[in-house]
Q: What sequence folds into this?
């Protein structure tokens, strides 16, 4: 009896090791809710951990409910470029099953690899630039002094940070005094205020809203909007998403402090110059 019990414990331990440990089963809990309770309505994605045995033709998934690992055929998914991310043992993954054969996966996404800081480059425009005729726009660009370009035409990094617990944070904010921003000859595109993210049948949904700042440093949001994106490509350092507005490529940043370093330096420089002029 003792031998049988010991063998059972050993088998369970081996299974946990083979699947990298059940680390993600509780990783994305929020306010006491499980991943299944936070699932979007209509989402039929199967979530779990990638187990030993995953390769270019098969993915082995340990379901979130702790049941036995399941093997899914991904030959067609690979052929159709629908395996997104570099699947590693122990990674939290999502699998979209074929409607006619539940042992075949039409799409696989490595959700652990999807998490992180994703950025793209934006450039400013001259204030009221879009209201000017094209010939005037070209003349302004041609006659703009190099010193002005070096000071104001600074690219910025925008994007989002996909975090644990389905949380999402906007990336790209550069602190500027309102008066300095109003005096600047250029304006940047509006930075979205992102709050959360989800997966819906293999698609990425990024949730944004309009923030309202209270006097006691509280933030409330209204006008929540779900941006549904197809994941066209997911690599170690690259992400390509397509939504209703088009396709955009992102690159990974490993540290939030590295985002917009030059832009923040320029903003700080202008702030100091403005304060110096005010004293004079």
A:
């Amino acid at each position: 009896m003792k031998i049988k019990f010991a063998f059972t414990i050993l088998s369970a331990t081996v299974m946990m090791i083979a699947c990298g440990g059940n680390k993600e089963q509780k990783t994305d809990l929020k306010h006491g809710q499980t991943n299944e309770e936070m699932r979007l309505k209509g989402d039929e994605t199967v979530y779990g951990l990638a187990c030993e045995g995953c390769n270019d033709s098969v993915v082995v998934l340990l379901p979130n409910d702790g049941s036995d690992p399941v093997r899914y055929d991904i030959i067609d998914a690979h052929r159709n470029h629908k395996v997104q991310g570099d699947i590693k043992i122990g990674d939290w993954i999502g699998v979209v099953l074929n409607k006619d054969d539940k042992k075949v996966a039409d799409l696989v996404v490595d959700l652990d690899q999807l998490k992180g800081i994703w950025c793209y480059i934006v450039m400013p425009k001259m204030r009221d630039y879009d209201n000017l005729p094209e010939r005037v726009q070209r003349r302004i660009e041609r006659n703009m002094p190099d010193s002005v370009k070096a000071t104001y035409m600074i690219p910025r990094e925008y994007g989002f940070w996909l975090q644990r617990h389905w949380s999402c944070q906007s990336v790209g904010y550069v602190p500027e005094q309102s008066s300095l921003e109003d005096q600047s000859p250029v304006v940047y595109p509006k930075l979205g205020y992102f709050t959360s993210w989800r997966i819906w049948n293999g698609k990425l949904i990024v949730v944004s809203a309009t923030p309202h700042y209270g006097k006691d440093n509280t933030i409330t949001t209204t006008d929540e909007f779900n941006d549904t994106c197809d994941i066209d490509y997911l690599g170690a350092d690259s992400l390509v998403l397509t939504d209703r507005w088009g396709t955009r490529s992102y690159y990974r940043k490993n540290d939030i402090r590295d985002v917009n370093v030059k832009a923040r330096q320029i903003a700080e420089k202008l702030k100091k110059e403005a304060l110096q002029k005010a004293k004079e």
